[in-house]
Amino acid sequence: MNLKIYENYESLSHGAANQIIEVVRQKPCAVLCLAAGDTPRLAYTLMVNMAKTEGIDFAKCTFIGLDEWLGISPVNEGSCHHFLRRHIFEPLSISNDKIHLFDALTEDPQGECRKMDKTIIENKGIDLMLVGIGMNGHIGFNEPAGSFQAYSHVVELDETSRTVGQKYFREQTTLTSGITLGLGHMLEARQVILVANGSKKADIIRRTIEEDVTPLLPASLIRNHVDAYVILDKEAGSLLTPR
Ligand code: PGA
After folding, report:
1. Pocket flag, ligand 1, residue 133 (CB < 6 Å)
2. Sheet holding 99-100: strands in order across?
């Protein structure tokens, strides 16, 4: 696992954006799984700007959704769907046939999981997965304990995710379950980037990097990946033991 600690959120975001651009430069038909969330927001804005100024074409890329709040409409501003459309797909004019996101309004969530797993196999796996980390150490909606499954699955949300998740919504919203790729997808992705910023993430980052690798702390599994990058700002890295 590679650890990079940047001076601040801006430089971290530049670093992450550069790394995504580099993957697409080398493989224009890359399969990308880019998480929604506050952490990568600026990285995506910078990535879109770089794509435009440097003429990097994302049109041949395939986009795989990491997770979604079950029961939340894609037009709801708090949905991952809405976030990805607004920050990535619309500015890069990605065509719908290149976008595979979980349908959170489906009446058959298990079928939706099987469909996503099949899509990933048909596209020959994920080239780059970029994820944030939850305050409880979750990746996507792979919550600590209870939901450790390799591939797409439905999960009952942890209390922390239900509470913290309110920040994405304008109004108080009932969040009970999610649909998510599994940690097997993360381990099988050819490259993984985990981004975290701010002092509020410092303790979970310390535990992720310095305590045991365990499904009780899903993010710690990134240390078993052969080409993984943990990209932090100074604040998120502030509790790490100096090397
Ligand atoms: P955040 O979310 O980037 O909004 O902090 C991270 C996550 O919950 O995975």
Report:
1. yes
2. 2-6, 228-233, 191-196, 128-131, 31-34, 62-64, 99-100
- For the segment 97-115, what is each residue's pLDDT rounded down to a tens digit? 999 999 999 999 999 999 9
Query: 3-class SS at 194?
Result: strand
- Ligand 1 proximity of 37 Cβ (cutoff 6 Å): yes
Q: Are 114 and 106 in contact (CB under 8 A)?
A: no
- Backbone conformation region of residue 146, classed left if phi is above 0, alpha if psi is from -120 to 50, else beta: left
Ligand 1 pocket: which of 34, 38, 130, 186 to mutate (most atoms within 8 A of CB):
38
Distance CA 69, CA 79 (A): 7
- Nearest 5°: the CA angle 172, 176, 179 is 120
Instruction: Evaluate whether 51 touches 37 at the Cβ level (below 8 Å).
Output: no
Active site residue 67: yes
pTM above 0.85, yes or no: yes
DSSP conformation class of 77:
T
Q: What is the pLDDT of residues 120-175, one digit of tens each?
A: 999 999 999 999 999 999 999 999 986 567 999 999 999 999 999 999 999 999 99
Q: Is 166 in the pocket of ligand 1 (CB under 6 A)?
A: no
Instruction: Output the CA 107–ligand 1 centroid distance in Å.
Output: 27
Q: Is 112 a catalytic residue?
A: no
Ligand 1 midpoint to CA 94 (Å): 24
Buried b (16+ CB within 10 A) or exposed e, 44-75: bebbbebbeeeebebeebbbbbbbbbbbbebe
